[in-house]
Specification:
Oligomer: single chain
Number of helices: 7
Radius of gyration: 17 Å
Helix content: 40-55%
Largest sheet: 6 strands, parallel
Order of helices and strands: HEHEHEHEHEHEH
Length: 196
């Protein structure tokens, strides 16, 4: 973490991670490494078949400014069965490009902790995420702090809470949910408690 490795460093790391099938790497911390969308996607693609990595930290990089990392992340969620913690806070995950990644959570059966804080997925992203979480039975903790999620996103997440019985913690600080979105979430939490 906190090493500006840039694209050349990311490519070198991806080469090593992609070729060495015998490493037993459990945690990879690459926060604040000045990874562009292209550089991050190179590293992420190298981890698609990794069988030992349990935690990946890519916070504070340039992920999402293009579409390559979104696509690589979507594939990571469906191909890598070892990863349990994915930290993507403080990136640029938002808009239509993020749909594929957020929808891939539907098929994910292993990630238990996901940090998407300080991105701007908005209500559209919250809707994609909410739909995926109806089918996801692995995610326990989700951080959506400061994601510009409004009332519509609050409604979708509230509906999700009524159907998802595995999610134990959802952080929604600093989102403009409004009174209506907040009330919908409270109703969703009451229904969620009835499930448990």
């Amino acid at each position: 973490s906190n090493n500006p490795i840039g694209e050349q460093g990311a490519d070198a790391l991806a080469t090593v991670l992609g070729k060495d099938a015998h490493h037993v790497l459990r945690t990879l911390e690459l926060s604040k490494c000045e990874l562009s969308d292209v550089a991050a996607s190179s590293v992420i693609r190298s981890l698609h078949k990794n069988k030992t990595l349990e935690s990946l930290d890519l916070r504070h990089n340039g992920i999402g400014r293009g579409s390559q990392a979104h696509f690589a992340l979507a594939q990571l969620l469906t191909r890598n069965g070892a990863l349990r913690t994915l930290l993507l806070g403080w990136n640029s995950i938002h808009g239509v490009r993020s749909d594929e990644f957020l929808n891939a959570l539907r098929y994910n059966t292993h990630i238990t902790h996901l940090d998407l804080s300080w991105n701007t997925i908005g209500s559209r992203g919250a809707s994609c995420l909410g739909w995926s979480l109806r089918f996801n039975t692995a995610l326990v903790s989700l951080d959506l702090t400061h994601n510009d999620i409004g009332e519509r996103g609050g409604f979708v997440l509230a509906d999700t809470l009524q159907e998802n019985s595995t999610l134990e913690k959802i952080t929604l600080d600093k989102n403009p949910l409004g009174q209506i979105g907040g009330a919908a979430l409270l109703r969703g939490l009451r229904a969620y408690e009835a499930l448990g």
